[in-house]
Design a protein that fits this description.
The protein has 414 residues and is an alpha+beta fold. The chain has helices spanning 2-26, 32-51, 54-78, 196-210, 213-217, 239-245, 276-296, 318-329, 363-367, 402-413; strands spanning 29-30, 81-86, 90-92, 97-105, 112-118, 125-127, 131-137, 141-151, 155-166, 173-188, 222-227, 249-253, 260-266, 300-306, 310-312, 353-359, 377-380. It has 10 helices and 17 strands. The longest helix is centred in the first third of the chain and has 25 residues, at 2-26.
Length: 414
Amino acid sequence: MSGEAATQSTRQLRRRKERLWAWLRVLPRPTRWGAYFFLSGVGLFVAGAHTRENAFLLLGCLPVAMAAVNAVWVWFNLRGLEVKRRHPGAAHVGESFEIELLVHNRKRWLPSFSLVLEDTQLPDLQRDFPRQLAMAVSPRFVLRLPVAASLRRRGNHRLRDMSVTSAFPFGLVAASRSMSFRSDIVAYPRPLRLSRELEERLLDSARYFGESSSSHRGDEEVFGVREYRQGENLKRIHWRTTARTGKPMILELEGRRDASFVIILNTAPVGDPNTLRERLEALVGLCAGITFFLTRQSVNFRFAHLGQTLLVSQHGRGDSQYHAIMERLAHVGLSEAPLAQWIDQVGLGDAHETPILLTLGPKEHAEARLPSTSGAIVIGAADADFRSNLSFDVLGRRSITSRELARGEGQGEA
């Protein structure tokens, strides 16, 4: 019992210290120039007391009076403020996006002046301006303060507290308020640019499995219209029939079957441990590049990866499929189980589906785990020819630019 009582008293003491510190933090405090101003007033007051000159006594009281007025004014200046944060839920690593702070002055009559806002500082979040200045916020008005930012590491990033500081009107006394507003942003991996050879290989597989011989000759015929099923090509929807029936209807072409891929990401640690992290990031970037390319081509595909649990997504295409897979790639780490323990659960064997296997080790080890008739595309991050699957643009950039990403996602939605 004595131990429990000691623990409870320690907790109560800690809570009291936290409340005291929280109370002290919101109290007005002198700024550096305010301290100089106050000390000069004390010097004048001492000189006046020593020389018995009333003018010195009056001048000595003036700085103290100004500091007192500043302390009261700054308290009213911060009273009734509410700050919120608005930003996209996801962004690619290195891509510039906008964080917008919303400052709401809920006071009925008094405006707020000279507010310095500072958001959560994260090591992987880079802003153009770490602090933002709001010169004036009218009563019952919401001021928007946008700032450009970018993330340097994939994964989930959480923004928590924001602080508002003001020293209005004289700059002698400052006060701060901390406001808790939690928000999350997911950093997608930056898609790497695929080489021309890999793109052509993917397109050849799509044409081989996706079209009949008559479609290659350009004389395929429409032989029916049926209801649209999830994951099929939206470009084949017949809009007149859809408008008449009230539900999406799709054209059936002679001998036509949509191309289908399955991206299998194997992150079991294999090879040199000193280069493991570098190979993992390169492999995730290549997987993101393939996902972006298949989305831009409006191809039907799915994704499989073993992390803490096995994820095998459904077939899909377009923007929704892209974001679902990229969110998964944002949190991909090393897998504890080898490929042989879970590859059979992916459901390979469809003659019209091409597997794309990406592995941290050599591709020869992974190829042995696949059916010999699968026609899989296998890429190993430990192979000497891994970089041959990547390309650079005219400026020497290996990753896809933000403008290409925006254009590609727009095509995926179409």
